[in-house]
Structures are given as C-alpha cells and as structure tokens.
Amino acid sequence: MKVALVYDRVNKWGGAERVLLSLHKIFPDAPLYASVYDKDKAPWAKVFSIKTSFLQNFPFASGNHEYYALLMPLAFESFTFDEYDLVISVTSEAAKGIITKPGTLHICYCLTPTRYLWSGYDEYFKNPILRFISKPVVSYLRFWDKIASQRPDALIAISREVQKRIKKYYDIDSLIIYPPLGLQSADHSQHLDKKDAVRSRSNESFFLIVSRLVPYKKIDLAVGVFNKLGLPLKIVGMGIEETKLRRMAKTNIELLGYLTDKELVEYYKECQALIFPQEEDFGLTILEAQSFGKPAIALKKGGALDIVTDGKTGIFFELQSEKSLKDAILKFQKMNFNPEDSIKNAKKFSFEEFRTKLEKEISLAANY
C-alpha cells in the first residue's frame, strides 16, 4: 500500500509534530506534503521526504504563512495524490482540503477545526478594525473550510473537545483516537521507571511549563501568578511572546528556550508539577509529565479533561484568571499525589494503542 502524509505547514515544533513522527514510524516510506517548509525551524522533519506547494517560493511564506491564508485552499488543492492508496492528513487548518480520486482513501486526523475561523475567532480578531476589514476573507475561508471538511472519507478527532467542535462547525460525526505519548529520551527505558518517578516533594524545587510561547497558550497568565507567589517556575519553549515574557518575569522565573528531548526529560523528572494554563485541543505535555509521575495543574477545559483526573493525576482550576490559578497552586501545595497514578494513566496513551486504533479505522474506512 502506497501512503502519503499531509500537514498544514512544516515550520515549528509541538504536539502535532510528535504525531507526525509517530505516523512516520508506522509508514516510514510515506512522503510528507505541506504548504511550506522551513528546515531551520523544523529539524525534526529531516526524516521525511517533503513535498511543498507553490507557496514555498513566495516571499516570507515559510515563516509567515498567515500572510497567504487566502491561498492556502489553492495550495492544497494543487497537490495530486493519484499514485497513492492512502493519504492521511494531519491538520488544524487547510490540509484536509486536498482532492483525491475515488481510488485513494483519505483519512483526516483533525487536530481541531480551523481555530482562527471557528473556536478561536474572537481571540484572533479582538481588534474591531481588523475584524471588520477581514470579514470578507473570513467568510470565504469559512465557506471553503466547510466544503473541505466533507472531502476526507473519515475524520478522526484527537479529543472529546475536538469531536464536539467537528460536530458543531462541520456537522460531522467523528471517532476519537488520542495522540500517542512520543517523548524521546536518551535512555527511554527509564521513561516509566517507578523508582525514578517516586521522589520526595522536598527534592522537587520548581514548577514547569512546556509550550510554544504564543498568545493563546496564556503563558503570561502563569508568569503573572508566579511573579506574585515568588515560587520557582521554569518555562521550556520558544515563540513570538518570548521577549514579552522575559520582560515580565521576575528572578524566580527562568525561560529556557528550546530543549532537546534528552534535556527536557530531566526537567520533567525534577519538577513538582506541570502548569497548563491554556485551553488546548489535547494536551500532550500533560501526558509527558504524567509519564514521569508528575501531576498537572490545568485549566478545566479542552483536552485536559480527557487526561487529568482531578485530585489523582492533577488538579483543575476553573477560570483563566490569576486568582483561579493562584488558588489552585496553593491548594496543590497542601495535597499529596501518588506518582504511580500518573504513570499508569500515561500508559493508556501508548504508541501501540494509537497504531492499533488507527489501523482499525483505516481498515473500516477502506471497506465502507
């Protein structure tokens, strides 16, 4: 069976990119199609044979794809997949809109319906002038996005939250297959080692955030809270808000930038808990922390609801406000958690489970 993978753009690193690497393990010969590719920002993608659209040759497109939002539909419709038996699109935007012939099965692994058009519209278009000017563009892209959602032979959601969004915005029923835990370390055999995970709270000196530093992740909310509490916080990740956050952060907060998986593992091992202030489609970093026996302090929304058991593998806070997060952190400090509960939960999201469910869905869709 000849297989191809499709992704919106290859120019960053995050949970979706870990999913692509998991798919590469299942389909090692599958090329990766994308609108643009920035090899400097996406060294993880070197394992793929990457095929880009005409946008690759446009000025600044690889790093500032948002300038070409109107051309994204055409970029993906321009690809040809006649030679493939199976195409899997991994998308939070336009990749689901590829056109395939009846002989090619198209499975869409939907990270979320296009965020800036639907669930995140108010966040992206807070400025009333921008909202007014962009109205015709948004209307067109919403129209196309709904058409594109009908093109795959099956849609797979990554969480209950995304499943609800797919139904709400596209009126399509979807199956849930959770993303797999895919963190790579130098000694992966220690990843779920009970002895390594069970540590006294006294040896765990800091809280941890692992995230891209972009506005909707709400890292500034956490920085504000830790500035007031004076507790140590380490932030792993890069993004457009890095300069702003560095200016905000007091001396108890350290921004570490990009870390390799080997380096990141050590921070997961040593932290008290993961701070998760954003409403996320899934929340792979929560699982990564849990795999080392570490609980999460997470916003009670989105994909975190599929991962965190309140009081057992972490705690929730209700509102995206400094008071709500601060109260949760203070509450957490008075609680005890059994690391084995988190480790056991993380094991449910294994690569083997992901592969088995995906192959079953491909088989069902092919025989439908």
Shape: globular
Number of extended strands: 13
CATH architecture type of the largest domain:
3-Layer(aba) Sandwich
Strand order of the largest sheet: 3-2-1-4-5-6-7
The DSSP helix count reads 14
In the CATH hierarchy, what is the class of the largest domain?
A: Alpha Beta
Q: Biggest sheet: strands, sense, closure?
A: 7 strands, parallel
Question: Fraction of residues in helices?
Answer: 25-40%
Strand content: 5-15%
Distance between the termini: 18 Å
Poorly predicted segments: 185-203
SSE order, one letter for each helix or strand: EHEEHEEHHEHEHEHEHEHEHEHEHHH
Give the count of structural domains: 2
CATH topology descriptor of the largest domain? Rossmann fold
Topology:
Blueprint (H helix, E strand, L loop, with lengths): L2 E5 L7 H12 L5 E3 L15 E3 L19 H6 L8 E6 L13 E6 L10 H4 L3 H22 L4 E4 L2 H11 L4 E2 L17 H4 L9 E4 L8 H11 L3 E4 L5 H7 L4 E5 L3 H10 L3 E3 L7 H7 L5 E4 L4 H4 L6 E4 L4 H11 L6 H9 L3 H16 L2
Parallel strand pairs: 1-2, 1-4, 2-3, 4-5, 5-6, 6-7, 8-9, 9-10, 11-12, 12-13
